TrEMBL record:
Any one GO CC term of the record: plasma membrane
The keyword Cell membrane is annotated on this UniProt entry: yes
Family the entry assigns: Belongs to the binding-protein-dependent transport system permease family.
Taxonomic path: Bacteria, Bacillati, Bacillota, Bacilli, Bacillales
Stored SUPFAM superfamilies: MetI-like (SSF161098)
Membrane topology: Multi-pass membrane protein
Statement: the UniProt record of this protein carries the keyword Transport: yes
One annotated GO biological process: transmembrane transport
InterPro entries xref list: MetI-like, MetI-like_sf
Superkingdom of this protein's organism: Bacteria
Source organism (scientific name): Evansella cellulosilytica (strain ATCC 21833 / DSM 2522 / FERM P-1141 / JCM 9156 / N-4) (Bacillus cellulosilyticus)
Protein name: Binding-protein-dependent transport systems inner membrane component
ABC transmembrane type-1 domain sequence ranges: 73-263
PROSITE patterns referenced in this protein's UniProt entry, alphabetically: ABC_TM1
Length: 277
């Protein structure tokens, strides 16, 4: 009986820790909804409101009046989806090449790729803007999509994942059966690395959805604003309606949560797969 009690105690501590961690993680989202469903004067009161109020629909209506919310949401969805799909395809293709194909300068090129991750993205802001301006893509969604189609982190992530998940024997068997490199990649590698793809997809979608600086630089017209830029325009010079802003922010967060819930199982498998192996 003593051994059973000793085994139960660590599990109880683990569950308590996980429950507290989950509550801490959920609280900012809950607090966002609380502020967005109350009037601003109740938010500024002390003690502040801690339960949802009855004004969420009213605050959301103010957001719809001030900005073209659904157009901005659609623009963000198009950009995030296009960037995510291109990153998944090209980064997995590059990861396959770096991990399973032999070619001259492979290791040196991979080291150079990793070195680019040390360069702050802000340093490329002006050169990228000059290129986009020369192409005539200012106020065009392509200005945000094309520069983000491949990332060094994505190539590194998929290279490591392909290397650990796809044995060389499987690649050799596909070549013996007459598969080309691309067919091997498409029919053998892609199904084997789906958890890694889901993990990279969530990171990429969230990062693109929340990106603010680069879209702010190249998307000036209101018709092509992303949701992050559109929410920024809700700020007034002399008065800030926090309830209205937070109600809009709450609604803009829902698509990210939906994407995570859809890919939740694959995401957990991708994160824990390396540790299990």
């Amino acid at each position: 009986m003593k051994e059973v009690g000793q085994k139960k105690t660590p599990k109880i501590i683990l569950y308590v820790f996980l429950t507290i961690s989950a509550l801490i993680s959920i609280f900012p989202f809950y607090w966002m909804f609380v502020i967005g469903s109350n009037a601003t004067n109740s938010v500024n009161a002390f003690p502040p409101a801690v339960v949802p109020g009855p004004f969420f629909a009213e605050n959301a209506a103010k957001v719809f009046e001030r900005i073209n919310f659904f157009q901005a949401l659609f623009n963000s969805f198009v950009i995030s989806t296009a960037v995510t799909l291109s990153v998944l395809f090209f980064c997995t293709l590059a990861g396959f090449a770096f991990s399973k194909l032999q070619f001259k300068g492979r290791d040196g090129l991979f080291i150079f790729l990793l070195a680019t991750m040390m360069i702050p993205p802000q340093l490329g802001l002006i050169p990228n803007f000059m290129v986009i301006s020369w192409l005539g893509w200012i106020d065009d969604l392509r200005a945000v999509i094309v520069p983000a189609m491949v990332t060094a982190f994505g190539v590194f992530w998929m290279r490591q994942y392909v290397q650990s998940s796809v044995p060389f024997e499987l690649i050799e068997a596909a070549r013996i059966d007459g598969c080309s490199n691309f067919r091997t990649f498409w029919n053998i590698v892609i199904p084997a690395v789906r958890p890694g793809l889901a993990t990279l997809g969530i990171f990429t979608f969230m990062g693109t959805w929340n990106d603010f600086l680069w879209p702010l630089v190249v998307l000036k017209d209101r018709s092509v604003h992303t949701i992050q830029i559109a929410l920024r325009t809700l700020n007034d010079v002399y008065y800030t309606d926090y309830s209205m802003i937070l109600s809009g922010t709450f609604m803009a967060t829902i698509p990210i949560i939906i994407i995570f819930l859809i890919l939740n199982r694959q995401f957990i498998a991708g994160v824990t797969d390396g540790a299990i192996k």
